[in-house]
């Protein structure tokens, strides 16, 4: 028998960035010029038009105002422009086609409905949502929507939102219950309102990543990028909430601004045999609740699992093996969610991959820190006649060759050095005769 311990397994972008910066400088100049010309009754800049400066292209204008250059065909058609590369200086480009409505559904997990007078319609990816629509998400669900200018919103489970127009081209999410997480591009049009409103307070944002939750007449928010302006709708209190801060607005009229709790710094993530995932926060903050979310994308727009726990141990429902993105945050006594620790995980369900290559059997599994493993081969399923009991010396694939041709039983056993607990990771047979 032979064992082999294997080893562990543009230029265009730069130009676009410079053009965007140049465009910003020119745009600010237009605003100043517009202010100076107001005394003469003229205005050359608004939230619905852009004054062309030398060197502008429709790609630049689209990227600056809407966060993507891909909307240039709409601008070209709306303004009847023959050559999108050659724009006549001082002409005005009409931007009014870029209404935030209708919103489009990017992703849905679980149940999410469009609430209508005659019932509820289950939303699907690609569906559009018009102004004054009501969105409702069910338990354990998640819905991600996108506006025309690139702003996106994730609506977690048990949330209800009414979509309203704010001014000519802004949007308001009337949060009746639950939560909303928003990603607003920093180059979103300056005069386009983006608000979260509840009966208790209003959050106004410009280029930011933040969360808002509303329950029991209390609005809470966590700001991760940018800035949020908060106003109590009952009293006259106002506050500016910056990155790394959170706030609580209650029915009494006050606004409390606090620092966000730090992310957990000692976390153990384990794939269980039933394909569930267990999260152990090894140094939990006493009395704090933790929230764990798993998504299939790094921006957490496609949230698959979302769970809270009052202790330092959380077990998530089974998931298919694969790579996922996971984030964990502590929640303070106000219900304000703190900064997240983010991980890329390979969820394998503690299964061992076994395949035959060139006369050898290759065993491979995910090795975890502070865990030792042993591969055991036996002539019987009770492992009383052990042929091999081997501890790999590294984390790579393990090759076993020159095995006898009769049926052989194998298993991989793990030993947790911290707890002393021994677990059979996976088991199976080689040269199965089928008898």
TrEMBL record:
It comes from the Bacteria. InterPro entries: FecR, LysM, LysM_dom_sf. Pfam families: FecR (PF04773), LysM (PF01476). Gene3D superfamilies: 2.60.120.1440, LysM domain. Keywords: Membrane, Transmembrane, Transmembrane helix. The chain crosses the membrane at residues 27-45. Residues 48-95 form the LysM domain. This is LysM domain-containing protein. It comes from Vreelandella alkaliphila.
């Amino acid at each position: 028998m032979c064992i082999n311990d294997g080893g562990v397994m543009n230029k265009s972008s730069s130009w676009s960035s410079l053009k965007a910066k140049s465009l910003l400088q020119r745009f600010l100049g237009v605003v100043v010029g517009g202010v100076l010309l107001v005394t003469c009754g003229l205005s050359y800049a608004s939230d619905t038009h852009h004054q062309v400066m030398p060197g502008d292209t429709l790609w630049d204008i689209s990227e600056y105002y809407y966060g993507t250059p891909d909307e240039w065909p709409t601008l070209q058609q709306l303004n009847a422009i023959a050559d999108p590369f050659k724009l006549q200086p001082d002409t005005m480009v009409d931007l009014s086609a870029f209404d935030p409505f209708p919103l489009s559904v990017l992703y849905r997990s679980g149940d999410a409905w469009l609430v209508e007078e005659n019932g509820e319609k289950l939303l699907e990816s690609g569906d559009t949502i018009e102004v004054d629509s009501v969105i409702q998400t069910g338990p354990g669900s998640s819905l991600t929507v996108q506006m025309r200018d690139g702003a996106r919103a994730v609506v977690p489970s048990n949330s209800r939102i009414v979509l309203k127009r704010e001014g000519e081209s802004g949007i308001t999410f009337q949060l009746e219950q639950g939560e909303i997480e928003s990603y607003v591009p920093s180059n979103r049009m300056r005069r386009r309102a983006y608000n979260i409103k509840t009966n208790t307070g209003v959050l106004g944002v410009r280029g930011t990543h933040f969360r808002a939750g509303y329950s029991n007449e209390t609005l809470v928010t966590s700001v991760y990028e940018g800035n949020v302006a908060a106003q109590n709708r009952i009293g006259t209190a106002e506050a500016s909430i910056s990155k790394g801060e959170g706030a609580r607005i209650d029915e009494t009229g006050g606004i409390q601004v606090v620092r966000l709790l730090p992310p957990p710094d000692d976390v153990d993530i384990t794939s269980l045999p039933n394909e569930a995932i267990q999260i152990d926060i090894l140094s939990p903050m006493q009395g704090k609740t933790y929230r764990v979310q798993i998504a299939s994308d790094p921006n957490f727009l496609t949230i698959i699992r979302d769970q809270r726990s009052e202790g330092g141990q959380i077990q998530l429902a089974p998931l298919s093996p694969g790579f996922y993105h996971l984030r964990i945050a502590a929640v303070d006594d106000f219900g304000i969610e703190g900064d997240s620790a983010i991980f890329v995980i390979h969820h394998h369900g503690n299964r061992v991959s076994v395949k035959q290559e060139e006369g050898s059997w290759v065993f491979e599994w995910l090795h975890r820190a502070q865990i030792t493993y042993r591969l055991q081969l036996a002539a019987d399923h009770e492992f009383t006649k052990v042929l091999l009991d081997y501890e790999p010396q590294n984390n790579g694939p393990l090759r076993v060759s020159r095995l006898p041709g009769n049926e052989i039983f194998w298993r991989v056993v793990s030993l947790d050095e911290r707890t002393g607990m021994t677990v059979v990771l996976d088991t199976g047979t080689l040269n199965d005769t089928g008898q």
